[in-house]
Amino acid sequence: MTPNLLIATNGFKGTLPAIEYGAWLAENLNAKITLLGVTEDLNPAAIDDHHPLEDVFARAVELFQQKGVEYKLEVENGNAEDVIPRKAKREDIIMVLGPLGRPHIRRLISGRSIRHLIEEIEQPIIYVPESKLSLKKLLICIGGLGYEVTAEHLAMRLAMKSRAEIVLLHVIPPMDFDYPTARAMTENLANLANTDTPVGRSLRQALRIAKEDGLTATVKVRQGNAVEEILAEVKEGKYDLLCMGSLYSSNSLRQIYAPNVTADIIESVSCPVLTARYLRK
Fold first, then answer.
1. How many domains does the chain have?
2. Is residue 281 situated within a structural domain?
3. CB of 230 within 8 A of CB of 171?
């Protein structure tokens, strides 16, 4: 069963690519859409003034009707960073987000909105800074700890609909210690999927799933800083969608000291990014 889509906008025109992408997703996944409009800093004295949400909603309705997808419109008042997670927690959905157009000084003080949202929202998130509706090439980051599994399965479903080419990427970080697993990876870069390591097993499983679905999938291995190498691969490979697991799936002390690679990547790429927490059984 395909979850429905929840698309959020605060009236900023930069959220239109997310709405366009959501309409395309709903058409391909046969999903229903809820478009959530958040009215922020509503001034009672300007209640009759034209609100930016009106233009965004008008464009959205036009898109939804063109695609023939089922949709409903909802409006809530408040701060988008508070309203959106609260709404998302009520339903089994895929969250579709775009930039909220925050002033530069606010981003410096409070951080980017998307970083806060991926911390608070447990459901899968597709972040769309720019709309790429032709899904021909898809990059799935494989970490080897299993946290990418939920995102990977959803990515495979999208790839099946578009018959997209899949590249499975693993980045080997700089290693300060010499231990058997590290040696097995560094000595078998060209055949990492054949090694008896956590990463090798994850890659083999992903390749098997892709083959069973009739998809073309290849493995690519890079060495270095995870954020830098993923960004370099996205740029060089010209991917239409990037798929990653979420740090917040780990539920461990690792969260305290590990960099949030997913958030750092989302803030730096222009292609849509799918991220989803690993759901423990």
1. 2
2. no
3. yes
